[in-house]
Automatic annotation (TrEMBL):
Gene3D superfamilies: 3.40.630.30. This is GCN5-related N-acetyltransferase. Residues 53-206 form the N-acetyltransferase domain. One of its GO terms (molecular function) is acyltransferase activity, transferring groups other than amino-acyl groups. Pfam families: Acetyltransf_1.
Amino acid sequence: MAKAKPQIRSLEENARADAAKVMARAFAEDPIYHYLLPKERHYHRRLVWMMQFMLRICERQGVTHQIGSPLQGVAAWLKPGEKISFLDEIRAGVLTAPLHLGLTSAWRSNNIMAATRKNRTRLSSGKDYWYLWQFAVAPESRGKGFGRALLEPVLKEADETGTDCWLDNSNIVNLPIYEAFGFKSVEEYKILQGNTLKTIWHMRRSPQKSKKRKR
């Protein structure tokens, strides 16, 4: 008997806390998040808050999907043309960011968010696009097709409407994963921390044309 495919559904508000925890575990070793949140003692707690902040924005101005029961993965997108205003950030809790993250982390996070957004605007030549802001599968559930299933609804819509998709990847080990979904690195954004360079890869996925079946 064939195994049932995991069900994809919109992220429920009462599942946001669990989703943020799954995302924090998935990004536990991410170099950029360790740059943003340098105090290891508070790393996990602050990362969970940061993920909740991003989910709140995407719930209002994008699409958020969850998979698994209990929840095992999340994909959070911003819709094409959506702009994040300061009012949107206030609604998501940005004024309390220094309290939750600390002044240094709040400042770094704001700067990186602004810089990557500016870079994407330049690289996309002002065209509207889907933006995959967060994508995470619980470490114990990787390799089961959850990631592909999570991205499939938006990637399919993007293909049908001829819309690009973008993401910012900050972990080199994830490059081949995103490439398997059709994303390609367009430009690297470097951040110098002490004597170490941190890299963010701006990645674009062009609309994929469906392959016609051979007769």
